[in-house]
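I'd like us to work through together how a protein chain folds, taking it slowly. To get us started, please write out a protein record for me. Go ahead whenever you are ready, and we will take it from there:
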Amino acid sequence: MTSKDLVCRFLDTLSIGPETRSDYARALRKFGTFMSDKALPDEEGTIEVLRMWLRQEVQKSPVSCVENRARVIVRYLEWRTNAGGGSNPVLELYAHYGRLIGPVVRALLEDDNGSALRRLVPLPVWGSVLGPAMQEHVARMKLLGYRYDTRASDLLRFDRFLQRHPALATVPLRQQFDAWSNESPGLRHQYLAQQCGAALSKALRRKVPEIPTLPIEPGLYGRLTQQERRPYLFTEAEIRMLLDAARTFPSPKAPLRPVALHAMMTLAYCAGLRLGEIALLTVGDLDLARGLLEVRETKFFKSRRLALSPGALDVLRAYLEARAAFGAPITPGAPLWWSPLRRSGYCKRLIEWMLTEVIRRAGLKPAHGRRGPRVHDIRHTFVGHRMMQWYRAGINPQDRLPHLAAYLGHKDIRSTLAYLQVSPELLREASERYRRHGARVLRLPGEPS
């Protein structure tokens, strides 16, 4: 089978449009010709040829474009190797430097590419002097029923820090965490380091009582919360702008995407779902006949069944009809958010990027950077608007907060109270409620109403 036939067979396995197929085929043909002309007998020579090709490409195109071409080529080489059609020089790079092609490409483009590649060698998991103790602590906490993924990730960062600084292996625990805390000046990192220090010192103290428990600095969390930005509460007009921006999201190659984004925005606002909860929904979680949505095993290991408004159900019904028209799977376990182009579901990271782009297109967030409203602020807005609706209906919100906490999936009412932001509209409604029901208590006897 010729090289051209192999490329065609590989492209047949991808769910891509004709324009993308043509671009991929051209890049693969050029790469194959270059490798044939420059090929050297051993594997080191093959890697050198790969580096030469990258250097040639970067003269004509931005590094980001070269990285994208390299990703296509790597996928082709992996497919060809699995099909028994030749060696894959990238496998050796993967074995030593990890499977992220971008850093490998940038390292190969450096003059001292040997040193650059050595910097990519992944550190062993729990490989520091405290690694086994941290691993044991994480396993114990999970055995006790805690999810503990976030804290485990933080402790892994500390583990890598210790491996990069072997001189800290013999100093006391407090000095190790002080050094890690000083690595970044931000209050968030300092608080994280102190949280990890407190957790690990308590775990070590169970075996060695002489080890002191490391404290968390008093007032640090308060300064952190004051420094970090407050949630943004969208107005009702801005919510309409978001829904319009989602419905008209430009996506000529993926016409189902705007319909999906409109449905995602509707669920974020009408049901107050977290981003991760939106991303994990399946077809079987939605019961249009009964108007219910099942949210399974999310934060705090909680599952909940939510009643949806008629308007939200209409939006979801329209999305499911459009989804079915594109031939998406309808089995209960299939991802609710489906990409006909990829023939797969959307991941959480891509959903967050798309919804953030919707906020930008609505003119509510700058074109670049992290400033401005976040996707999670829509959940805060759901709470704020629900409070205003209760005030307007003459309902005492205090009586409804436990129900709201259950709807949001909070473990207790305190988590819900953290969502209650005082907005001008909420102040006006609360003031009017006080005027109607509370002010008469302060009137003197005989004073006119």
Observations:
- The longest strand covers residues 292-295.
- The chain has a mean pLDDT of 88.
- Residues 391 and 433 are 7 Å apart (CA to CA).
